[in-house]
User: Fold these one by one.
Assistant:
Number 1:
Amino acid sequence: MEPIIKVENLWHIYPTGNVTALRDISLDINRGELVGVIGQNGSGKTTLVKQFVGLLKPTRGKVFIDGEDTAPLKVQELAAKVGYVYQNPNHQLFARTVQAELEFGPTNLGVPEDEVAERVEQAIEFFGLQDLRDLHPYRIGFPLRKLVGMASIYTMKPDIFILDEPTTGQDNVTTRKVYRLIGKLRDEGATVLCVAHDMILLAEVVERMLVMRDSELIMDGTPRQVFSNDEIMASTHLTPPQITSFSLRIRKDKQNLDDVVLSVNEMVKLATN
């Protein structure tokens, strides 16, 4: 099966300052995968995923979405296949009401009016936006505004869903909705890329992690493989979830723990078996 995202020897050099943001990246992402992208600020994470939605174009190399070269395509042409949720919803939202924001994307894609209405109602119910539909997005708090940004992309039903720091600035209630959204997208067969510093989120929801450092892809593996690689974690100045760090210390002490634990639930199951 052809990968839904294919990257071949990708370079991106910002003309201002001649900054190399991506250096010879090659990778395949298959349909339905849940992928985390990690690295320090400036490592190339966001530059990489913006290539997939057409917001940036390769300086050298190729990016293919569902077999199609993105170089000649406009953002609008990729929008039906790739949805991008900005870290800051203020860069994304512009309609006068929440409902209008949710209607805009699918309407612009030519989705029939009755189906647009159905998608909007589903999104409003799923994200708990019933009391906000007639409000201006900028009249609601940041955590809910961020959910509106996610909902506005969800109504477009893209094959690929990119979340840029989805839990940043979120409270516990809205963070749980992010977890539910990723689970729902998985169940619907979408491909999800999650750019994040939230290691707990990634440990619990993704199946694969891409590790960026200094514009290069330095590791591609499962969360267990990445979090248990001391050299990789130290070089990126990132820290595994606390429960994972604890399990690693136990394993190094040669106690009865055969694998890296990614969540409290896993630790409880291990302890009760």
Number 2:
Amino acid sequence: MTPKIFKKIAVAALTLVLAVSAFADTIRLKDGSFIKGKITGFTGGRFTVVIGEGSRQRTLYYSADEVESIEFDAPGTLPAANTASRNVPSVRVVDNLPPARDTSTSNPRVVTTDTTASNRSQPPPVPPTTPRPTPLPRETAARNDQPVSPAQPIELNVKVLADNTANGWTHSGWVVKKGQRIRITGSGQVSLGADRSTGPAGRDDIEDAEKLMRAVATGALIAVIGDDNNEFIYIGASREFTAQRDGALFLGLNEGNLDDNTGAFDVKVEILP
């Protein structure tokens, strides 16, 4: 072989190698990425793809389920499948597509390094869910079902003197507001003089023309609201009433002459809620 002929053969071989290497198939995967390489086979439901050249050349394998489409730069057909596997996957093959879009705007993810099939078979990580705040414990049904305890009345314990101290009136220590409900209970015995005694209910058998409430028993427990008021209230042993005015609550005995009296009634005043 002459040197001239050998040179022509070498140039033709180099041209063929460059032409073959210039072709690269585009494999688009279902996760949105694509691979530039050469599909060299399809065996056992997997594509064999060679990427890179020389010492950087890698062989990758992709399951048919991972592949969305394949674009062959060199028009042709799918690589010959192994005769033992006749189930060629239904992969969309794209030939003579229009030029790809400018990747500077779409920025698709291009895989140019080895990504093993084992990594690809793993499902994408599930984004962590924000834990719901633990609801605060609700009030127990038993607590909700229990009746609300009514407000307790305000109680005052008063010694109501029977004599003429403070003009015969004992301040209860409470200033009444109009509309308040008041319950007063008296107990004990006092002396009315002349060897006579009585309890809070008073005595009907003792005449007294000067007593404050003519129709009420002598020596009975009575009350008045305010120091400028003559609207006396009969209490007796017990009475509950609604205040008709504002003012300090005073307690005393229904008798005209208190000079010879001794002792005191034990009185409980309750301001009801």
Number 3:
Amino acid sequence: MSRLGPLFETLRAENRRAVIPYLVAGDPDEALTLPLMHSLVEAGADIIEVGVPFSDPMSEGPTIQKGHERALEGGTSLLSTLALVKQFRETNAETPLVLMGYANPLERKGYAAVADACAEAGIDGLITVDLPPEEVAAMNAELQRQNIDNIFLISPTTSDERVATITAQASGFIYYVALKGVTGAGHLDTDAVEAHLANIRQHTNLPVAVGFGIKDADTAATVAGCADAVVVGSALVDLVANDLISGGSHTSAISGAHSLISSIRNGVNLATSN
């Protein structure tokens, strides 16, 4: 069993919601990634999503696309991302880590080799953005062999029939994309989110995380009223990038990221304290 199941069981028993920050490994360089991950945990992150840099991150908005570009320019790859995860595990064996990437690098390496490498590094779950559930059987077999969860995205336009297909293949949690389009875009309609989550829960007992549109403590707190977890991606990537672009240091970028996640943690806790 991965770390995800026990974590969500504990959170459910305590009426708490998970806070899940997303970062692109190696953005803007690998020297920042490891201390940033540890700082996010200290700020209250329950799970960390680690993005694998890719040349065509089609589901990402401009903010995260630029993060992928910066990481690739610095030479970060799937293998070096897993090496960073392995370093993180040297001092943190508890926090669940989810690898988020695209199918092409995984297919090139081979699903069995990917599952083995992820298990060795200490990965708990995998999100493959562009691998449809109809084509996931081979990967699922390898991930299950290593007790790694396979996490799927569901969007506002996903049909009820497809939701059933996805939830039958998924484990760990479901990632609900709260906005149509790419990451970092649009206005979050919390009433619509709540309605979609109710429909998803008719098909599965898995926890449901909501991402795309969580920008601050207020939006996180609102979503925490109906979701099991909130994912913070573009806001975090943008904050770190802007700090460095404006002449800040790794230390100041990490401090800013810590403050953002800490405020979101506090907002989520207040929203679910009753």
Number 4:
Amino acid sequence: MQRIVLITGCSSGIGLDAARAMALRGWRVFATCRKESDCERLRSEGLESFRLDYDDEASIATAMDEIAARGGRLDALFNNGAFACPGAVEDLPRDALRAIFETNLFGYHDLTRRVIPLMRAQGEGRIVNCSSVLGLVGIKWRGAYVATKFAMEGLTDVLRLEMAGTGIKVILIEPGPITSSIRVNAIPHFERWIDWQNSARKSEYESLRSRLYNSSGPDRFELPASAVTAKLIHALESPRPKPRYYVTLPTYLSGLMRRIMPTRLLDWAVSKG
């Protein structure tokens, strides 16, 4: 029987690479995007694509109806879509945090809860959440994104414990710097929510804004999206998937530092990174 995977955030980057790769490996792929125009582009490539927006509860319900209409089976879910809202924590309005949590965490959770009954009925399934190196350690100016990823790590860990014995495997992938559009996509969120001109840190924002608006080329240690896909393949196809998959050297280093360093030393190391 052909295995079926639902992948979110497939308009570009990690999601798009994963959708193409899993289709080539013989999986039936439901490749979802926030915008219908992106879904049309993916359908023109031969992928099955329909709309799913984590920030829109109705679109999640409609996506589940689509899955039911296409057979109602789902062997795996790869929760992938997310965005960033750079800025100092003291400058983050409450609504900015609410908006990023809706997409980066609450949408994941909503979709996962809707998928679990299908997997329970099948007696098996894989749920893979795309976290981040920033779910292991925090860095300055990324407080909103860091908060969503730390929360995701905790929620996913508990779900993994609770799903033991059900046949449903719950897995985290934690990428470091990966080639994607996350910097460009963060600009409208920064402009909407961060009143940097009236911030006590106004002078410090000059450097942040320069990095945000001007590409300086690939980050140090940056890997292509295919590096995440390689971990996803193991997570979905191995009979014994790992609970966690690190991607890129910074993730391995951060995981190690978090385990062995006292907090003050870790703060110093991260601030120098």
